[in-house]
Specification:
heterotetramer; A alpha/beta; B mainly alpha; C alpha/beta; D mainly alpha; A: alpha/beta; Rossmann fold; four-stranded antiparallel beta sheet; 9 helices; C: alpha/beta; eight-stranded mixed beta sheet
Chain lengths: 240, 354, 399, 293
């Protein structure tokens, strides 16, 4: 049985700068892996390399056993990679429902079916009462949920969440954590870049720590947090 | 050409679906739900048809002006599929107008092809050209598409001038004879007027159908944010190419009618930048990405042109230049876009308040 | 916004319905470019028409009724011209005339042919307007062929003076507009007929071009005749660059348009000297009243008139003559009267409409040739005769 | 070796005209590099320069090469004013809006020229405009040599300003990262006005240089806008040295194409090169990558 996602020896270079160096990661269905590290550690770049938005110079990415490292982002999405963006970008000028309708069309060519699926995704994230509202009118917490609904509407098997929790107030955070847990329970493999340690410790069985593009630690959250190299990376990053 | 009333709900081009209507009057009980479910634009289309028919009756001696207006509105609406709904500004759509006109001209005069075959051929060629052109430019980041659009139209103009054997060169091509489909005299201004009106309605109906379906939403997604669109499984290059091919084919169709209308084709007026710019500006001033914006823009600028002819005509594009600067600075969505934005706000405010 | 729109609509309505009212006068329609890029020529037309109206109305108009001209501005664009054409046809005017640019006149001619209404062309010279032509299209002015023809008459005259074979080879450079291409085509045809060899023919795009690549190429061919066809801007650039490149030919010939305008001499300076050019009418033509008309047109315009003004004058004179003779103002009767036109001594030359050399309803007028001498145009060839000295062109080094 | 002399003649001809294309393209590329604006009015700026030279010549009898001293500051002021009044309002608007605004400016400028000067072509006649010097069998037109020299001086001057002065460093910083430049205290709106002013001044200088060589008509601008686009895309959008290379290349390609192939397609050669570049090396011959991943 192939694993949900297997990335091996990913290296990304911008000009002479090595942004991600020789990083591997793997996870199974229902598993949540956290990706942490100080700012500029290469988390987002690795994320982009896995989802196809950045070009990896070396390395392979397998989705349920088939290689996708040469595929563009949209083709990876079609094969079951869903993602959110760190800076959430709803399609301006469209309503909340229409925003989710667009990814829903990926699995349903018929408008009525796609609309039902989009509505379903909105219900999942608790936005169904906002369906006809212009998306630009949503507040931050609701934009995050819209972003998630958009990612869910492609019916992903592997989901990439980019700082989904950032800036949420405690009740919203709690709600979101519970929600991500239920997604994993429904059988989706999740990779998350996250700064909010509460979310990381509550959700992830496994954490990968990046610093200067290198993987410096890998393991359960508590164990990794106590790793001196990790502590040093964070402190070192802090006084830069 | 009237719409089926059981179209799916839509909020992009019509009123939003779910908002329960406040208090339908007893007489409009049947009509209101249909309008709410997206029938309104179809009603608008019927209004355009009626206005066209009214023009025919009221100004029977100004059919040429009407034909010019209808064709410009049709081209601008076709342009808008790419320029407005998909967000790819083209300043080369004259290429397709010229292509349409020349295909009719060349096939009619050299090969005696019946006009309906010429029209199909023209549309197919336009779509192929758009496809290849999109291949070269849609994968590039930045303003390369708009730059290339001018270049391609220029190249076609130079080909039309230099390949004399095919196009008659600078002296041009004269259409003296055409088959009469269903006994219609295609050279009569009366026939041409109805053809032009039908053409505009066809473009508007296509726009309405496309923008309410999958492709239409993909086009808007690509316009708003290509990275997000890719996350939704959309291939931006192929969506842009599809929109471009559709836009090109429809523009070429209008070009065919224009070619018959002129029946003397020369490269200069047909392929020139001037025409491309006019098509784009009419759509932008009227409101990009709105169903009736390009039509409103064409009507306004044509009528303003007629009115201010003596005041401005020495520099007849001056008014376009001033208007576009004003629109960009103060009404960036265009006239219809601004009206629609206000209407959506008001409606939402009402439904949220009530 | 809504109010502006309504105002626009109402205004437009008023414009469109303000058509023909009571008629004690005879109206002739004229479509020309009063504004836009050809406005310069529309002004010339207007002057000629004004002078002609004074004359015909002083002479009793059309059988007593005063003659009036309804101007329609085509704003130098084909769409507006067709709109104007339709308007004039629907107003039921007995005769419509126009326009300046062949690109505009060609579609108009198609339209009037389809409508079966007579249309009188007086400036556009594209051959295609009257060749093959149609029953309804008549042209006073010389077709583009004539521009080349008169210059070849001059070449023949030079060969006769200085010995056969003096001039044998030709190179042609021309703009890629309809008119210039048509003249260049005529050069090919006439050269073949009269035993000249066209070594090469090159065209160029748009005003402001750099002709050096073409001229360098021509220089290696050592042509006897450099035949140039271009509008005003290019004619000056061409002659300057001919001098600069040092292209020596025995004859420099400017076929039309740009080379016959005063601006050509002003812009080219001494480089313009010895250039032969074709024109359609000058004050020196041997037709009655030419000097006088030229003086009147100068007074109206406030500057030297171009031949376009004389063409417009001739068009109105002809139209009035036709309408006087027409049995009625029905299209068929007006057409019949046009066909029967025979005006042997107008100021523009003898006007009648004939079918010849593939032309239909074309006035068979010859063009006029001039040579630039000491910064002035001198008429050298009119009506099939040499009327001045044909000066030899010195080499650039000898100037 | 019979072909060599004409070939050298054509090559120098192409380089000389290419120098002027470079001057136009440099301004466009500089504006794009710093402001991320494709200036559709650039050719019209050239036309304004031509008319400025003509007016100064006809009214004051001023030699066009002296007129440069008037045209350059005038262009700078006009450009800076245009940026302040119109384009500055669009600094955060989508790229499309600025593009359309400059297109509107182009239409306004060319039509205003139309209203002032009419459709009639205008030119300047200088006795030395047709003079030539011969160098190793190649005839070099004096006017074009002067034009080439001025182009060289202007470009070197620009390069010195950009690399050797405080303002130049600010310009380059703004080009690389507007936000970053603002953070270190650079007044980027001022830099934008400055750059647009320089761009317009360069274009007007090109116009003045062209005035004695060619003819001015109000519509001449659009063909120079197109040439400037081709030049900058050949060289890489936003690259100033690239624009110089692109300009020279375009001049040579056009000249050789017109000499050895067909002159009717002269303008098409540049456009074909343009499309070919987009197809094969969209970053331009000297630029960085623009292909999407």
């Amino acid at each position: 049985m192939p694993r949900a996602l297997e990335a091996e020896r990913i290296t990304v270079q911008f000009g002479g700068l090595v942004a991600v160096n020789d990083v591997s990661l793997a996870l199974d269905t229902g598993q949540i892996v956290g990706l942490i590290g100080p700012n500029g550690a290469g988390k987002s770049t690795l994320f982009n390399a896995l989802t196809g938005y950045a070009k990896a110079r070396r390395g392979t990415v397998r989705l349920f056993g088939s290689n996708v490292e040469r595929l563009p982002p949209y083709a990876r999405a079609r094969r079951g990679m869903g993602r959110t963006f760190q800076i959430e970008r709803p399609f301006e000028g469209l309503t909340v429902l229409e925003n989710v309708l667009i990814p829903a069309f990926l699995r349903h060519a018929n408008r009525a079916e796609a609309e039902a699926a989009a509505m379903h995704a909105l219900e999942l994230v608790g936005l169904s009462d906002r369906a006809v509202q212009p998306s630009s009118d949503l507040n931050l917490a609701r934009r995050r949920r819209l972003e998630l609904a958009k990612a869910l509407a492609v019916q992903p098997r592997v989901l990439f969440l980019d700082e989904l929790m950032a800036g949420l107030n405690p009740p919203a955070l709690k709600e979101m954590i519970g929600f991500v847990r239920s997604l994993a329970d429904s059988g989706i493999a999740i990779v998350m870049v996250e700064h909010i340690m509460q979310a990381v410790t509550e959700l992830c069985e496994e954490v990968i720590v990046l610093a200067f593009g290198e993987k410096i630690a890998h393991g359960a959250p508590q164990q990794v947090m106590n790793d001196p190299r990790v502590v040093e990376a964070y402190l070192g990053g802090a006084d830069e | 050409m009237t719409g089926s009333p059981d179209r799916g709900p839509d909020a992009g081009a019509g009123p939003p679906p779910a908002a329960p209507s406040a208090a339908p009057g007893p007489a409009s009980r049947a009509l209101t739900p249909w309008l709410e479910r997206g029938g309104a634009p179809w009603l608008g289309l019927a209004g355009v048809a009626a206005a066209g028919a009214a023009w025919y009756v009221v100004f029977p001696s100004s059919l040429s002006l009407g034909i010019g207006l209808l064709l410009l509105a049709g081209w601008a609406s076709a342009w808008d599929l790419l320029g407005g709904w998909t967000g790819q500004t083209s300043l080369g759509h004259a290429a397709f107008v010229g292509l349409g006109a020349y295909v009719v001209g060349v096939t009619a005069t050299k090969y005696g092809l019946a006009p309906w075959w010429s029209v199909l051929l023209a549309m197919a060629l336009a779509a192929v050209l758009a496809f290849l052109w999109g291949r070269i430019t849609f994968g590039l980041r930045g303003s390369y598409f708009v730059l290339s659009s001018i270049a391609v139209a220029e190249i076609l103009r130079l080909i039309a001038i230099n390949e004399r054997k095919l196009t008659g060169g600078a002296i041009g091509l004269f259409i003296f004879d055409l088959d009469r489909p269903f006994g219609l005299d295609l050279f009569s201004r009366h026939t041409e007027f109805w053809l032009a009106l039908g053409y505009l309605l066809l473009v508007l109906a296509t726009t309405l159908l496309v923008t309410r379906g999958k492709l239409g939403y993909q086009m808007r997604a690509v316009r708003e944010d290509e990275a997000s669109a890719q996350a939704a499984g959309i291939n931006p290059v192929s969506v842009k190419s599809l929109a471009f091919m559709l836009s090109a084919a429809l523009t070429a169709l209008g070009g065919c009618i224009y070619g018959i209308f002129l029946s003397a084709l020369q490269p200069q007026p047909l392929f020139e930048l001037h025409l491309s710019v006019r098509i784009a500006l009419v759509a932008i001033i009227g409101g990009r990405g709105t169903l009736f914006g390009p039509l409103i823009g064409a009507a306004m600028l044509t009528l303003a042109g007629e009115l201010f002819r003596n005041a401005f005509a020495e520099a007849n594009l001056l008014i376009y230049g001033l208007l576009i600067v004003i629109v960009v600075l103060f009404v960036p969505r265009g006239l219809m876009g601004e009206l629609r934005r206000r209407a959506v706000r008001r409606r939402y405010a009402k439904s949220a308040g009530g | 916004m809504k109010r502006v729109f309504v105002a626009l609509l109402v205004g437009c309505l008023a414009l469109l319905t303000a058509t023909a009212t009571a008629q004690e006068t005879v109206k002739i329609g004229v479509i020309t470019s009063l504004t836009g890029r050809f406005a310069e020529f529309g002004e010339q037309h207007k002057a000629g028409i004004q002078a002609a109206l004074e004359d015909v109305n002083a002479a009793g108009g059309v059988n007593g009724a005063a003659v009036e001209v309804v101007f329609e501005d085509d704003i130098s664009e084909v769409n507006a011209a067709l709109t104007a054409g339709e308007k004039l046809v629907n107003q039921g005017l007995p005769l419509v005339m126009g326009a300046y640019s062949s690109g505009i006149t060609n579609p108009l001619a198609q339209y009037f042919t389809r409508q079966q209404r007579p249309f009188l062309v007086f400036t556009s010279s594209d051959d295609a307007i009257t060749r093959p032509g149609s029953d309804w299209i008549f042209r006073i002015n010389q077709p583009s062929y004539a521009y080349a023809q008169v210059l070849f008459d001059v070449f023949d005259a030079i060969n006769a003076e200085r010995g056969a074979g003096t001039l044998k080879t030709v190179v042609t450079v021309h703009g890629n507009g309809a008119f210039e291409s048509a003249v260049a085509d005529a050069v090919d045809v006439i050269a073949a007929e009269r035993g000249y060899t066209v070594l090469q023919r090159q065209d160029y795009d748009q005003a402001g071009a750099d002709f050096r690549p073409i001229l360098n190429r021509f220089k290696t061919l050592n042509p006897d005749i450099l035949f140039m066809v271009s509008y005003a801007a290019d004619s000056v650039a061409l002659m300057r660059q001919v001098q600069e490149v040092g292209l020596d030919a025995k004859v420099f010939a400017g076929g039309a348009a740009g080379f016959a305008l005063p601006g050509f001499i002003e812009g080219s300076g001494p480089a313009a000297d010895y250039v032969f050019t074709a024109t359609m009418w000058t004050k020196d033509v041997p037709y009655p009243g030419a000097q006088d008309l030229n003086a009147r047109l100068s007074a109206i315009l406030g500057r030297t008139p171009s031949y376009h003004a004389a063409q417009a004058y001739a068009a109105v004179i002809t139209a009035v003559d036709v309408l006087k003779r027409a049995a009625s103002f029905s299209p068929a009767d007006v057409r019949a009267a046009l066909l029967a036109t025979n005006m042997p001594d107008t100021v523009y030359g003898p006007i009648r409409f004939e079918d010849y050399q593939g032309y239909k309803n074309q006035a068979p007028l010859p063009a006029v040739a001039e040579q630039v001498v000491n910064g002035d145009f001198v008429t050298v060839y009119v009506n099939g005769q040499v009327v001045g000295d044909l000066l030899e062109t010195p080499s650039w080094n000898a100037r | 070796m019979e072909w060599l002399a004409p070939f050298l003649q054509n090559l120098t001809g192409g380089l000389l005209i290419g120098g002027i294309y470079a001057l136009i393209g440099v301004g466009l590329s500089l504006i794009f590099g710093v402001m991320r604006i494709i200036n559709f009015a650039h050719g019209e700026f050239v036309a304004v320069g031509m008319y400025t030279a003509i007016v100064l010549f006809q009214r004051l009898g001023m030699d066009p090469y002296v007129a440069l001293l008037v045209a350059a500051p005038l262009g700078f002021v006009l450009g800076a004013a245009l940026q302040r009044v119109v384009l500055h309002r669009l600094i955060d608007a989508p790229a499309d809006s600025t593009l359309l605004a400059t297109l509107g400016l182009a239409l306004v400028l060319s039509n205003v020229l139309f209203l002032i000067f009419g459709a009639e072509p205008k030119s300047i006649y200088l006795p030395y405009a047709t003079a030539t010097v011969t160098l190793g069998g190649v005839r070099l037109p004096v006017a074009q040599l002067i034009a080439g020299a001025i182009t060289l001086v202007v470009i070197v001057g620009l390069w010195l300003i950009l690399t050797r002065t405080e303002v130049g460093r600010a310009v380059r910083a703004t080009a690389q990262n507007r936000l970053g430049a603002e953070l270190v205290g650079i007044d980027t709106p001022r830099i934008h006005a400055l750059v647009f002013g320089i761009g317009m001044a360069l274009a007007m200088c090109a116009g003045v240089i062209l005035a004695p060589l060619l003819f001015a008509v109000p519509t001449v601008g659009s063909s120079y806008t197109l040439k400037a686009f081709v030049v900058t895309v050949l060289g890489g959008l936003g690259s100033v040295p690239g624009a110089i290379g692109g300009g020279l290349l375009l001049g040579v390609v056009e000249f050789l194409g017109a000499s050895y192939l067909s002159s009717g397609y002269r303008d098409a050669y540049g456009l074909f090169a343009f499309l070919l570049i987009l197809l094969l090396r969209p970053e331009g011959l000297f630029g960085r990558t623009v292909k999407r991943v």
